[in-house]
Amino acid sequence: PEHIKQLYKTTWEIKQKNVIDMAADRGAYIDQSQSMNIHMIDANAAKVTSMHFYGWRKGLKTGMYYLRTKAAADAIQFTVEQKKAQDQTVSGLADRAEISSMDEIACSLDSPDDCLSCGS
After folding, report:
1. In this predicted model, what pLDDT tens digit does every residue of 75-105 receive, in sequence order?
2. Which of 31, 71, 72, 99 is buried most deeply by CB count within 10 Å?
3. Quick one: residue 69, left, alpha or beta (phi over 0 = left, psi -120 to 50 = alpha)?
């Protein structure tokens, strides 16, 4: 429902001007600056400069701690190719490689002196 969406916005849906305003309101009651993260979908030099000057005019001691930008591509859109996922030779090699490497690093309780973690 729309009223729930308005109540629980993602960080990309919150206006960053409001974040700066709230940080400035809190700033009068704390003796140090806030580590504030700014989230911009399409950040550029003009927008970041404008944001810094707005925060400075509001009295912020720190413009921002981190600038978070949205990725150009969504990670969910990348998938494993079906042919490779169904290819038993590729997955079989990966499974065997993992098992052999696990055997090499597994600790043997029978001879703890051979283990770097137990024998030290």
Report:
1. 655 555 555 555 555 555 555 555 555 556 5
2. 99
3. beta
Q: What is the pLDDT of residues 49-63, one digit of tens each?
A: 999 999 999 988 887
Crossing angle (nearest 10°) for helices 16-27 and 45-58: 30
What tokens does 19 get?
């974040």
Query: Coil, strand, or helix at residue 9?
Result: coil
118 part of a folded domain: no
Sign (positive/negative) of CA torsion 59, 35, 62, 66?
negative
Q: How many domains, the chain?
A: 1
Residues 6+ apart with CB under 8 A from 66: 37, 38
In a domain, 50, yes or no: yes
Burial tier of 16 (Cβ tally within 10 Å: 0-12, 13-18, 19+): buried
* 3 state SS of 31: coil
Q: Specify if 103 maps to a domain.
A: no
- Does residue 110 lie in a domain region? no
pTM attached to this predicted model: 0.56
